[in-house]
Amino acid sequence: MTKQKTLLLAICCLSGSLVFSQSLKFGIKAGTDIHKLNSKSFKDEFSFGYHAGFFLDIGIMPKLGIQPEVLFSQVTADTSSSFRDIYQLSNISKVKLTYLNIPLILNYKFNPFVSLQVGPQYGVLIDQGKSLFSNGKEAFKKGDFSMLGGLQVKISKIRIYGRYVVGLNNINDIDNRDKWKNQTIHLGLGLAL
What is the number of other CB atoms lying within 10 angstroms of the CB of residue 178? Predict the structure, then answer.
């Protein structure tokens, strides 16, 4: 029920923004994810993944805009020896996570080319690769709330962006012995259509 309320709220906000918008552009984007799970259970190193999706660029004022996005994202994380010690699972060395991320970004335009981007992001876990437990118990929570910040450079219809995303909630769905939080750097290209 919470997912439905969140989606309804996002649609209402987007609809209200569209009514008052000065400009509207639709586009596609793709890039790399440099990801790390902050915890004792996973290696303290970044791994690479990818993301792809689409965006709306909604101009509200000359220097201010909103950019809602929907991104399919896939990353991997390597477990550490602490994971095996805490959860007594010796055969798990790598976890693959697939998210549907929905950022709602506020763009502050320094000039026609460079924008500062900040905002919240909600990620829905679509797949965690495989069940970590023989009884099928899920290891990761289905939702992840994050905040992001970054820069976007606009050259004609091309968007070049880099942003840092930090998870705010614990996504460990096993227990509270170890807190797991996502941390991601997005680097990519977009094309306004």
Answer: 16
- Distance CA(186)–CA(148), nearest Å, equals 10
* Sequence letter at residue 146: S
Give the helix/strand (H/E) hosting 24. Answer: strand 23-38
Q: Token pair of 145, please?
A: 């709330």
Tokens at 3, concatenated: 């997912």
CB 20 within 8 A of CB 13: no
Successive 10-residue mean pLDDT values, the chain, 193 residues: 56 52 85 84 80 95 94 80 60 77 96 96 80 56 91 96 92 74 93 94
SS3 84: helix
Altogether, the residues listed in the chain come to a count of: 193
For residue 11, the 8-state DSSP code is H
> Which residue type is seen at 129?
G
Q: Measure Cα distances from 180 to 46, 56, 137, 155, 175 in Å.
A: 14, 31, 17, 38, 11
